[in-house]
Amino acid sequence: MEMSSVGIIGGTGLENLFQNAPQTSLKTPYGMVPSIRTGTVEDKKVILLLRHGINHAIPPHRVNYRANVYALHRIGANRILATNAVGAINPSMKPGDIVVPTDFIDFTKTRPSTFYDEAPVTHVDVSDAYCPKIRRVLIENAKMHGLRVWSEGVLVCTEGPRFETPAEIEFFRRLGCDMVGMTGFPEVVLARELQMCYASICYVSNMAAGMQRRLKASEVSKISKQTIPTIEEVLFDSVRSLPDKREATCPCAQGLRDARFT
Predict the structure, then answer these.
(1) pLDDT digits (tens, 9 = 90+) for 85-105
(2) Are 45 and 57 in contact (CB under 8 A)?
(3) Where are any strands of DSSP class E within the chain?
(4) How far is the C-alpha of 87 from the C-alpha of 99, rounded, in Å?
(5) Does 108 fall in a domain?
(6) 260 found inside a domain
(7) Residue 153: which domain range?
(8) Cα separations (Å) of 227 from 69, 174, 221, 249?
(9) Number of compact structural domains in the chain
(10) With a threshold of 0.90, does the pTM exceed it?
(11) What does the DSSP 8-state code read for residue 242?
C-alpha cells in the first residue's frame, strides 16, 4: 500500500476551486508550472493544477502537459482526477451530460506525449487507459448528485484551438467516437508512464460540428458555469470515497511492468 495526496487537473470552469488555498509554482525538467494550489478535503491533501492557468489564458495546444503531470508526481500525488469539456458526437448525448471515458483516440499533432524519448525504450500498455477504480468512484458520485451519466465512452482528442469541421466529426463518428475534446490527451498516457492512476469526468458542453448550427466558445462557457458547481461536489465526494492508500495491485501502479526493452 502507498499513501499519497490526490491530484486534480481542473479544466474549463474550475478556476475558482480552492481559490483561497496556498498557491505555488514548481520548476520541472519540462518547464515551469506556475499555478499549483494545495487544499484539503476532510483529512486528505488535494493538489489542484489548473490546466489553462488561473485566468484561462493557455490554449489547449499550448498546455505543457508533461510539466503538469510531472509536477503532480513530484509533489507526491499518485492519483489524478481530471475534468474536460467535450462536444457530443454520439447523438444520444446532450449538453449537461457527464461522460466518464473508457478509451481514447489521439488526433493531436504537435504535443510531446511521452517522458521516454531516450533509452530505455518504453512502451506502456493502455489497454485500460483510465483507472477502473477511480472511474467507478466518479460514476457513483456523479449519479448520486443527480447528473445524467454515461459510464462508457470513447474520447477523440484533437489539436485545437479551432473547433472541428463537420466532415471531421462525421469521420470520428464512423470510427466509433462518442465525444470530442482538445485536452484529454496526452495527460492519460503521461500519467500511466509515471504509474499514476488517472481518470476523467467529461461534461458535454455542446453538440459537435455539423450536429448544431454553429459552435461558440461562449456556449462552452455557459454550460460550464451551469455544470461546474455540481462537478466540484462530485470531485470532493470522490476524493472522500477514495481509500487513503492506493493498493499496489492497482493496474496503474504496474504501468511500467514489462514495458521496457532491456
Answers:
(1) 999 999 999 999 999 999 999
(2) no
(3) 2-3, 5-10, 23-28, 31-41, 44-50, 77-88, 98-99, 103-107, 149-150, 154-158, 179-181, 197-207, 245-246
(4) 11
(5) yes
(6) no
(7) 2-254
(8) 25, 29, 10, 34
(9) 1
(10) yes
(11) S
